[in-house]
Amino acid sequence: MPHWRPQRKTVQKASFEKVLHRDSLNAAYKRVKQNGGAAGIDGMTVDEMLPYLKEHKEELLASIRSGRYKPQPVRRVEIPKPDGGIRLLGVPTVIDRMIQQALVQVLQPIFEPTFSDSSFGFRPKRNAQQAMKRAKEYYEQGYKRVVDIDLAKYFDTVNHDLLIGMVREQVKDEAVIRFIRKFLKSGVMVNGLLSPTTEGTPQGGNLSPLLSNIYLTSFDRLLESRGHRFVRYADDSAPRRRRAA
Q: Which are the contacts of 76, defined by CB distance < 8 A and separation ≥ 6?
C-alpha cells in the first residue's frame, strides 16, 4: 500500500505580478465597469476606460512595474448624513479604481482567514442581514445590554504607518507594500486645490474597505479577549453584555 503523506497547506502569497496578471486586470476592469460610478479628477468615465486601455495598456503596465506610476488624487465629494453631518468621500479615477480592485482580488483571500467571525462589513459572502441575525442570536442568548460604537471620522484618521505594519504581517512583497502606500498618499483634490493625505484611507476607493477591516481586526481581537459578544460592520460596532441577574 502507498505510504500516506499529509497534504501541505498551501500558503497564498501576494506578489506584484499576481496583481498585474492579465486575468487579474481583466477581472478588475469588469468589476469597475459593472459598478459604474462617477469620474475622478481626470474626467474619464467607465465607458471611456476600455478605449484608453486598448491604446495605453503596455505604457500603463510599464510605468507600474518601473515604479513611475503615480495614482491621481481622489476627487472630494461631500454627502449629507441623516443626522445633519457630512460624510466625506474620495472618488478615484477609473484607472486607479481598476488597479485598486486588482490589489483587492489578490489581498482579500490572504487576509480573510485572519478576520474576526464577528466582522460582517465589506467581506465576501457577508452582509448587514447576517450581522442583524447574529445580534438577534446574542439577544436570545441573554446578552441584553448593548453599546453602540461608531468610530468618528474613522476613514479620515487611519494611521498609515500602523496600517502598513499590519499589512506587512501577511504581505512580504515590498512592491505591493509600496503601491498600497502610494494610494494612501495620493492626496485629495478639493475645488481645484490639492491637499496631501498624511493619514486616513479615502472612503470611496475599492481598496479602502479591505484596509479598513485589516486595521480594525486588532480592535475585534481586543473585544474578543474581554469576552464581549459583538457584531461589527465597517466602523460600526455593537458589543453586548449579559443582563445582570
A: 88, 89, 90, 91, 188, 189, 190
Q: Residue 205 is placed in which grid cell?
A: 476607493
Name which residue leads in pLDDT, 32 or 193: 32
> Could you give the dihedral angle defined by the CA atoms of residues 122, 126, 127 and 133, in that order, rounded to the nearest 10 degrees?
-140
CA dist., res. 60 & res. 68, Å (int)? 10
| CB-CB neighbours of 150 under 10 Å | 10
Please name the amino acid found at residue 183. F
Cα distance between the two ends of the chain:
61
Q: Which three cell numbers stand for residue 207?
A: 481598496
Look at the pTM and tell me if it is higher than 0.90.
no
Three-state helix/strand/coil letters over 176-242: HHHHHHHHHCCCEEECCEEECCCCCCCECECCHHHHHHHHHHHHHHHHHHCCCECCEECCEECCEEC
Asked whether the beta carbons of 137 and 129 are under 8 A apart, the reply is: no
Coil, helix or strand at residue 94: helix
What is the C-alpha to C-alpha distance for residues 198 and 186, in angstroms, rounded to an integer?
Answer: 9
pLDDT tens-digit profile of 5-27?
334 444 456 688 999 999 999 99
HEC states along 4-38? CCCCCCCCCCCCHHHHCCHHHHHHHHHHHHHHCCC
- pLDDT at residue 241 in the model: 57
Give the number of other CB atoms < 10 A from CB of residue 31: 16
Confidence (pLDDT) at 100: 97
145-146 and 240-241: which strand pairing? antiparallel
